[in-house]
Amino acid sequence: MARRCIIEGKAWLCKWLPVFFGCHCRPERSFHWRGAQFPICARCTGELIGILSGLLTHGVWHPGAVWSGILLIPLVADGVIQMCTPYESRNLRRLWTGVLFGYGLTNLLLLSAAAVFRRGYELGLKLKA
Known about the structure:
The protein is mostly helical. Helix content is about 65%, strand content about 5%. The mean pLDDT is about 90.
């Protein structure tokens, strides 16, 4: 039986968000609202929030590459601990580690894109001269 989409009139979003994130959509690892499961799990929901936050705040303020890399560690550590031990984190921890990871990854992507753009611009000026 198909899951009911939590976003009224946006069934395409409920179909493609899990594909985009590679989400397992396990009900016990997902948030529910008004009897409907979120289209992606708690960790992927956090990553989406982090990605959107990173995109919205990057022009005003963003951490450097080192701090952005450090923001990736909690999600990786939580996942490795769960894989290697009987410990299972709760959805709130999954959400917050996802937010940090999404924010850090977005900042790393934007910082690297800006660095490549600057390097290409400098190279273009040298070639022009």
